[in-house]
Each structure stands twice: as C-alpha cells, then as structure tokens.
C-alpha cells in the first residue's frame, strides 16, 4: 500500500519526519510522500513564513534518513493556488518536488456572507470555478476536492468535527452536480492531474469516483495524516481502486 499525503511537524503534523518514516516502514507501506503545507498566502498555517531554504533542508533531511529504508519516500508539498489555478511556488521549488498536491484551502470570495449560511450558492459557485481552474493548472494532484471544504468563512464555532463532515457532504450533494463533475474530469484528463482519494474523510462520493474513472482520470491515494494513528490507513482507497478499476498516480522522483 501507498500513502501520498502525510504531514510532519515541519507544518502542522504532530511528529517529525523520522517518526513518520519509521512508522511507515513498520506498517509495511511500499511508498509514502511527505507533503507538508507550504503556502505563503495562507494565514491559517503555522508555517506560513517557512522559507524555501528551510523546505530544501527538510527535503534533504528526509532523503538522507530514508536512504536504505524498506519504504520508498517521496518529498513534496501541499499548497493552494490563486483563483486562476496558478501555483504560488517558485520554479525552483516546483522542480524539486516529487509531488505537488494543490488543495482548495481557501476561495477568493470577497462578498459578505452570513454566519452559518453554509449553503450559500454564490460562494460554492466561486469554489467550483476555482476548482475547475485548479484542475486545469499545474501540480500533480488535486487534493481533497470534496473533503475539508473551506467552510471557515461561515464560522464553525458551534460545530464538531462530525457535524462539519456532515455539512460538507450536504454541500457536495447540493452543489457539485454531474455537469460540474464531468467538466472537472475533462480538465483533469487534459492536464494529466490526478484526483485525490482522501482517506481521512472518505471522499469523494462514489458516484464521483465512478464518473471520473469512466473519463480516464487517474487517482492518488492519501491519508492526510497529521497524527500517526491514520498514517498509511488507506484501505478505503484500495477498496475503491478494486471496485472501479482505477488507474493510480505514481510520483516521479526529482533530483535535488
Ligand atoms: Zn489540505
Ligand atoms: Zn493535508
């Protein structure tokens, strides 16, 4: 099994890269990708101001420690793009990342929204537009398009993790219709970007998986582990792979 979406304490993960690599080896994973957040425009990130030098050092530490280990370790980042799907990463960083996950962590949407107005159509229209741009743009993987939706703008004070998951599922059902999924699939096929099977949230919906698979979209598998209890817990994704005969994404190792 593989897991191509893992965080360490370089960003908001709980443990360091050594612990991640050791545990992945112990669990018998074939390959993992350490994909810490790297996004200078995301004020929610603890490491918003991490420098390129720090990221490069992080990668070389990982490669050095992983050498000779029974698990293959790729280095990459998880980052958001601008509204038009352009990467906020320098050419230099793009070149050395084995994996670039672009995830819709925020939407450029300036209009006023009411608190708890989670089903605000205009906002989700903007989200979908951004996702289409991201699907057409650079990067290897479109991260969790139906999981961890950016609902923070509406205030999440009275919600629990479970109730937020439920809200996200409802938003997907209401707004992410077949025409949208078809267009997303067309763009992913054209850009050769993969869609993420996000094991932390068991998203996307199966109807989406089967529709995208019909179009020839490839899929990436990730736990999005921040804590070690879910590292490598990707059985759900493999179940989907078998059920829908999915084509899997395989990272390419870059030279540093
Ligand atoms: Zn994310
Ligand atoms: Zn993540």
For the secondary structure, the number of strands is 8
Q: What is the CATH superfamily? A: Metal-dependent hydrolases
Low-confidence stretches: none
Rg over C-alpha atoms, rounded to the nearest angstrom: 17 Å
Class based on secondary structure composition and strand pairing: alpha/beta
Give the tally of structural domains.
1
Sum up the overall morphology in one term.
Answer: globular
Task: Describe this structure as you would to a colleague.
The chain is of the alpha/beta class and 256 residues long. It has a single domain (2-248), classed as Alpha-Beta Barrel (TIM Barrel). Helices cover 38% and strands 15% of the residues. The protein has eight helices and eight strands. The chain has helices at 17-26, 52-66, 91-96, 121-136, 161-175, 178-191, 206-215, 235-244; strands spanning 2-6, 31-37, 72-79, 99-102, 141-142, 194-198, 218-222, 247-248. The chain has an eight-stranded parallel β-sheet with strand order 1-2-3-4-5-6-7-8, with helices on one face. It is globular. The relative contact order is 0.16. The mean pLDDT is 97. One zinc ion (ZN) binds at residues 78, 103, 105, 143-144, 148.
Keywords:
binds zinc ion; TIM Barrel; 256 residues; 8 helices; 8-stranded parallel β-sheet
Itemize the secondary structure elements and their pairings.
Elements: E1 2-6, H1 17-26, E2 31-37, H2 52-66, E3 72-79, H3 91-96, E4 99-102, H4 121-136, E5 141-142, H5 161-175, H6 178-191, E6 194-198, H7 206-215, E7 218-222, H8 235-244, E8 247-248
Parallel strand pairs: 1-2, 2-3, 3-4, 4-5, 5-6, 6-7, 7-8
This protein binds zinc ion (2 copies).
One zinc ion binds next to loops.
């Amino acid at each position: 099994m593989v897991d191509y979406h893992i965080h360490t304490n370089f960003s908001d993960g709980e443990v360091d890269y050594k612990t991640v690599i050791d545990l992945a080896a112990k669990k018998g994973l074939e390959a993992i990708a350490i994909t810490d957040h790297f996004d200078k425009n995301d004020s929610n990130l603890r490491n918003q101001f991490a420098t390129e030098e720090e990221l490069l050092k992080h990668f070389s530490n990982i490669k050095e420690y992983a050498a000779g280990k029974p698990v293959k370790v790729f280095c990459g980042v998880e980052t958001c793009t601008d509204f038009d799907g352009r990467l906020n990463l320098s050419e230099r960083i793009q070149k050395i990342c084995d994996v670039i996950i672009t995830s819709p962590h925020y939407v450029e949407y300036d209009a006023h929204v009411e608190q708890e107005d989670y089903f605000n159509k205009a906002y989700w229209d903007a989200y979908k537009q951004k996702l289409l741009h991201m699907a057409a743009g650079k990067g290897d993987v479109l991260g969790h398009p139906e999981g961890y939706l950016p609902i923070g703008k509406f205030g999440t004070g009275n919600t629990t993790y479970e109730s937020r998951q439920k809200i996200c599922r409802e938003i997907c059902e209401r707004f992410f219709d077949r025409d949208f999924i078809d267009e997303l699939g067309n763009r992913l096929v054209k850009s050769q970007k993969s869609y993420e099977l996000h094991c932390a949230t068991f998203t996307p919906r199966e109807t989406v998986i089967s529709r995208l698979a019909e179009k020839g979209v490839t899929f990436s598998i990730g736990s999005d582990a921040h804590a070690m209890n879910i590292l490598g817990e990707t059985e759900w994704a493999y179940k989907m792979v078998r059920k829908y005969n999915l084509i899997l994404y395989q990272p390419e190792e870059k030279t540093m």
